[in-house]
Structures are given as C-alpha cells and as structure tokens.
Specification:
The protein has helices at 5-12, 16-24, 43-57, 62-74, 79-128; strands at 2-4, 32-33, 39-42. The chain is mostly helical and 129 residues long. It has a domain at 1-60: Multidrug-efflux Transporter Regulator, Chain: A, Domain 2 (Orthogonal Bundle). It has a three-stranded antiparallel sheet with strand order 1-3-2. InterPro entries: DNA-bd_dom_put_sf (IPR009061), MerR-type_HTH_dom (IPR000551), MerR_fam (IPR047057). It comes from Umezawaea endophytica.
C-alpha cells in the first residue's frame, strides 16, 4: 500500500517539512513518486519514520540518527554497530529517566509539604471559628 506525504506525516507525527528535511539529509530514502510526481511512501517507509520519531523523542541527535541510517543502508554487516548505537542511546535515556524521577520525587515531596501546611492552616482556622 502507498501513502501520500500528508498521510506519512500524519502517521509519523512529523510535519511535511520535516519529512522533506529528513529526505534531504539522508535519514529517509527518496520516496517513490506517483505518475503526477508526488511522493508516495510504503508501509515500510512509515515504519522507518515512526522509528526515527521515537529516536528524536528520546533525544537522539540528528547526527547519530544519520549514522544509524547510513549503517542501515550498508546492510546486515552493520547490525552490531547499529545495536551498539541503540544500546548507548538507551543507557542515556535510562539515565535521563532516573534523573527526571529523582526530580519528580522532590516535586512530590514539596507538594505534600505544602498540602500539609495548608491542612494545618485550615485546622487552625476551624479551631478559632
């Protein structure tokens, strides 16, 4: 099945401009064209776009995404190198998640602290009323 650039953008969550940019920098192979010269994307293209979107969401730099894409084009001989890129990136993502969880714990503590103070204020007001 083929998809228009608008459908590919909607499916991947990327803008049409971003799809064209990814094509220009080599992250996405130039898509096939229909008889009118419009880009058409295959289901496999859409899967790749979703994967790229996940990499960006997790903070992978474009430079590393381009390296991954370059290795992907070289075929199965680069599987280990591609896996290593993903392992390294996953370690960074996990570290950022741990840092965010620690920050969230501090926020939760402070929110609970203020909730306790306000509950005490309400009790004090009720006792004097």
């Amino acid at each position: 099945m083929t998809h228009s650039i608008a459908q590919a953008a909607a499916h991947s969550g990327l803008s049409i401009d971003t799809l064209r940019y990814y094509e220009r920098i080599g992250l996405v192979d130039p898509p096939a064209r229909d008889s009118g010269g419009r880009r058409t994307y295959s289901d496999a293209d859409l899967e790749w776009l979703v994967f790229l979107t996940r990499l960006r969401t997790t903070g992978m730099p474009i430079r590393m995404m381009r390296e991954y894409a370059r290795l992907r084009h070289l075929g199965t001989v680069t599987r280990r190198a591609r896996q290593q890129i993903l392992l390294d990136h996953r370690a960074g993502v996990r570290a950022r998640i741990a840092e965010l969880q620690s920050s969230l714990d501090v926020l939760d503590y402070k929110i609970d602290f203020y909730s306790g103070l306000m509950a005490g204020d309400e009790q004090a007001r009720g006792a004097t009323a």
